[in-house]
Amino acid sequence: MIRSMTGFGRCETVLNGREITVEIKGVNHRYFEFSSRTPRGYGFLDDKLKNFVSSKVARGKIDIYVSVSASDETPTEVTVNHSLVSGYLDAMEQISKTYGVQNDITVVSLSRFPDVFTVHKAAEDEEQITADVLSVTDTALNSFITMREAEGQKLKTDILNRAKTILSIVDEVEQHSPQTVAEYEERMLEKIKQTLLENDINISEQRILTEVAIFSDKVAVAEETVRLRSHFDQLLNFLEYDEPVGRKIDFIIQEMNREANTIGSKVQNAALAHKVVDIKSEIEKIREQVQNIE
């Protein structure tokens, strides 16, 4: 299924006492470009997130935002800085002896001195956190891909409509091409005969007709229209693929432009020249749409 490179996905849930939020955004890019923003201390998630996303997304600029909030039930550890406590007690004792004041230090008062206690959360299980974040990411990514697919269907419909328009114009060019060639041959034949007559040159009628036919072939567009139709057949096939085809279609569009330019240089009829301009305009619009296909 055709996918757009533009999309958004989000998931927020609580797993193993942590509230995890993942947001994914994607926009056009020639290749796969990934950037992640994770909480401080969770840098170990970056590469794992990139590998996980790249396994399901082939192209586009992907930005992912991860938030991890621990619940109040998260285990914590409180440790006592015994050497610092001993220092405080010794200092209090010196003050008492030196200045003759009562040493009324208590545990509560001592605990209020700086750095007596060190409070920190228990070491977290990186493997569990990774598994939980990737689980949430998977849900957000599925939402992201669903949006891309919906946008891709709109792009596909637009491209098919424009392809239909182009092929109908190609029909008109093909129908008028024989008449255009015949008119060109007639004009050239008259011009050659006039030139020969004015310069009193004698050449056989068959030789003249042969030369006219050779030059007339340069304004025939049958080969180009056949190739153009072939490119459109390839385009329609690519639109049915279940894999990323944006780059392939982009190449086909370049070939279409080349054939359209050749046709434009060959047609001798003003009305047909306008038709070719319409073809090139529609191809350009398809090219713009293809820039957003994965």
Account of the protein in words:
This protein is α+β, with helices and mostly antiparallel strands and 294 residues long. The protein folds into three domains: 7-72 and 131-148, Ribosomal Protein S5, domain 2, CATH 3.30.230; 76-121, no CATH class; 152-290, no CATH class. It has helices at 45-54, 82-99, 107-111, 126-198, 205-216, 222-238, 246-266, 270-290, and strands spanning 7-15, 18-27, 32-37, 60-70, 76-80, 117-121. The strands form two sheets. It has a four-stranded mixed β-sheet with strand order 1-2-4-3. The longest helix is centred in the middle third of the chain and has 73 residues, at 126-198. It is rod-shaped, with a radius of gyration of 38 Å. The N and C termini lie close together (10 Å). The relative contact order is 0.14. The mean pLDDT is 86.
